[in-house]
Amino acid sequence: MLCYAEPRAMKMLRFRSPSVSSLAQEVQCTVRLLDDSEIACSIQRDTKGQFLLDHVCNHYSLLEKDYFGIRYVDPEKQRHWLDPSKPVVKQMKCQQPYTMCFRVKFYPQEPIKIKEELTRYLLYLQLKRDVYHGRLLCPFTDAAYLGACIVQAELGDYDPEEHPADYISDFKLFPKQSLKLDSKIMEIHQNELRGQCPALAELSLLQRAHTLDTYGVDPHPCKDFTGSTAFLGFTARGFVVFQGNKRIHLLKWADVSKFKFEGKTFYVIGVQREKKLVLTFHTSTPASCKHLWKCAVENQAFYKCAKSSQIKTVSSSSIIFKGSRFRYSGRVAKEVIEASSKIQRDPPLSVITQPTVHSAGLSALKDSVHLSPLKPSVTSEEVEVRENHVQERREDEAVNRMKADEERREIHVDHEDEACAALTISDTEYSPCASVVPTPVEESQGGLNLLFQSPARLLKELHADPEMQLELQAERERELAREAFRQSLCSPSSGRQQMQACLLSAARLVVMATGLLVILLPLLLVLLESDLDISFLHDIRQTPEFEQFHYEYYCPLRRWFLCKLELMTEQLWGD
Predict the structure, then answer these.
(1) Using CA atoms, how far apart are residues 178 and 148, in angstroms rounded to an integer?
(2) How far apart (Å, rounded) are the C-alpha atoms in residues 117 and 64?
(3) Measured between alpha carbons, how far is 352 from 362 in angstroms, rounded to an integer?
(4) Whole-angstrom distance, CA of residue 431 vs CA of residue 134
(5) Confidence class of residue 545 from pLDDT cuts 50, 70 and 90?
(6) What's the whole-model pTM score?
């Protein structure tokens, strides 16, 4: 049962269970959406993450929900994705009320295949956040085009009488925004994108963004075997590694065999140029390494598998009964695209001026609050003027032109990947300011000062800490001890000890099995020969094999035992 109370600032939700006594155990949650609005929730202690995710999707009237997830931060500032199959309370380690964020978890490989405009709009909001926080790094020309698409979607066509000369200064689009970039954005906005409606401008951004190497990358800061800072990520194409302003590794999903982790060390096992490849990286904490491993397993299953039935439970270690076990439980990319193609409701053509029943979520989203902190206010008259500029024929031509450009870019990228593994992605270094802590973060959590710091600098300060140096030294000593142990196992003197240990283990197994047989067989025999009226015992008694055993072995053995017992009793009484 869902009960709603609707104040102006946020909507309240309460998940009720049949037990009245359990209402005293309600937990308060706040979910921050992509447009920085919030939904306040009151849930039970046994409410699973899937209910929370479904509620946010219902708030949007969102059907293509498999691309999205809910993220939270624990007290140690480690990010996590909320597991839909587990209770929310058991996953949250911080104090109430809980604060979480609704974000894009799996980026669509081809945004043009997204069926509904609502889903494309939410992806547009996520990409705008990625651009602002430096996660979507790109060359100068692409950055200017993305910025112009954002301006076109939110301001409409350039009007000299309405827009001042420095109207781009009202937008904070990039972490580092120069005058040269602003000038290029205005040039593209005033000329190339003129006439595009907001939906088409958003689609233009998606089409350009998904061709970039950093599209869909949720960067995980770490260090490689040389101690240099690197950022790991997972995209629809495969596993990527960024260092400086270059992409130094790209392993396509077909070439990735397995991901493993042990402590703070993360391993990527794959094949490159028909040779086995093992990449090793070191994270700052074991918790961040486990989170990295889980993200790797989920992305590999989502993008690589053809059906969800092919997904298997994976272990973090190759040793039996050791390490963490995890399985992705959602649908895969191919199934999501197939399900999207079967959506029957009409997509909203003009969600602001012509709202329908199905587009209520999107129109409410666009009308309730500002789309983001970056967007200036837009009046209804401006919206009507903007809508009147667009014709269906122009939209169709633009979409067809983008499809053709996309095919050419895919061919170019494939040749580029075959030519070299290292690829320059930008003129500046890849240093996303929000790769350690997701935005937004509560001021009470003390994490705002981390948002605009580079993870490279954070890692540098972390490794400069004396306690961290001692911990790293201890980690090196443990590695040396494990290596010495492996070498000792290979020596001839240790072969006899290993054989003796193996024989001792086998002897223990035989003794344990014999003991179980000695205890269980007499117990089963007593139960079968008793008068207990149990169905499975009765069925066993009716079998020919048991009747033969009863008359040929059990009865003679019982008579012999009773005779011996009588003789012993007579001798005792005679004495």
Answers:
(1) 14
(2) 11
(3) 9
(4) 7
(5) confident
(6) 0.64
